[in-house]
Write a structure and sequence with these properties.
The protein is α+β, with helices and mostly antiparallel strands. The protein is built from two helices and four strands. The radius of gyration is 17 Å and the shape is extended.
Length: about 90
C-alpha cells in the first residue's frame, strides 16, 4: 500500500510555523528523504510539498490532494485571550 504524506507543523518546524520558517527548505529535504520520495518526483523541483495522486480501477478512481498549508502561509495573529469556555488562545483572521 503506498504512503501519501504531507507535513503538519511539527514535521515542518516549530509549532504553528509557516512561510517565515527559516529552515523550510531544509525541512522539505528531510521530509522527502524520510519518505523516500523518488529523485525525479516533481515535489523535488518546486517550492512546497503539495501533490496529488489518482488511484483505483477505471470507474472507481479517487484523487487524493495533499495541500501544503505551511510552506507558503503568512504569519499567524493570536487573539489577546481565549474565547469564552476555551483554554487555548485562538488565531485571528489576517
Amino acid at each position: 500500500c503506498p504512503t501519501l504524506a504531507i507535513w503538519d507543523d511539527h514535521d515542518y518546524g516549530v509549532n504553528d510555523s509557516g512561510g517565515d520558517w527559516k529552515f523550510k527548505d531544509e525541512s522539505k529535504e528531510l521530509f522527502l528523504k524520510f519518505f523516500d520520495v523518488p529523485a525525479d518526483s516533481p515535489r523535488r523541483t518546486r517550492k512546497g510539498l503539495y501533490a496529488a495522486a489518482v488511484t483505483g480501477p477505471p470507474g472507481k478512481r479517487v484523487q487524493v490532494i495533499l495541500l501544503d498549508t505551511r510552506y507558503f502561509r503568512g504569519k499567524l495573529t493570536k487573539a489577546d485571550k481565549p474565547a469564552p469556555g476555551q483554554k487555548v488562545v485562538p488565531y485571528l483572521p489576517n
